[in-house]
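I am still getting used to backbone structure tokens and would like to learn alongside you. Would you supply a protein for us yourself, any chain you care to pick? Start from the sequence, derive the backbone structure tokens from it, and show both lines together. Go ahead whenever you are ready, and we will take it from there.
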Amino acid sequence: SSGINAEYGVMKRSADIDFMLEESFVDVIKRIYNQLKEKSADFVCSAKLNELLDLLGLDERLAPAVKFVQDKLCPESDVLESNSPVEALEAYAIVWSEIWEKIKAYGYERLCTTKLQDLLDILGVPDAFDGAVEMAQKKICGLVSNSKREVALSPEVKLRLSGALAETAREYAATLLKKYMKFIICSSRLQQLMDWLGVPDDMDGAVEMAQEMICGSGILGSALAVQEKYLQGYLDTILTVLKHLAALGKEYVCNADLPEVIASLGLPDIMVSVVRTAVSFFC
């Protein structure tokens, strides 16, 4: 399949399309390619397009995508016209946009607690689109792994969260230093610092990091590692904020100013970095 992958590479570099649409398209094309590859060349190359669509269980609107794969598998066939990857992508985009709208309309709470196979059945989407639906599900839900119904962070998401947590801790440290002397901060219990800042209990990791920044190597010189114990509470807070953002609605949240969103959530200004991070995942 090196030839077909090479053609994808050219398409991916030149097409100005949404990354998720593009990646899900490649996933579906590869699946079609692998399924047809298992059949005899005589059958695939002599079969009518409708027969292949029925075999694959695909919408007839994906005929250009199936035709594109058929042409790749049957280069010696006497065809009047060969589909390009761009033509196949354009056809796929129409079907994908409908699936995407169905997914968004399903509701954040249900979407993020439904297993992938159940979601495919509910939405009436063929199994060939499981990679595309899973990609969309992860995009919308941001951080929740539904296959195991537990939180599972990808390296990319973990890196983003770690950076956001460190920034939050620096903001908390700066806020504490504006109000209290260093020896008071360093001699205070964690809960006392949290009460002074007015942050929820799940933010104890960020506050503990802030205290260590102040009392350890200092804010500017700190290279404090973001430990798992810090990250989990921060993640729990982000997930809680995400649920409230979903209740406000994507159109409002993604177009409103951050202070306006914070006010709508009824959160104190000290939570600005947390809300900013949640909004970046949500939108």
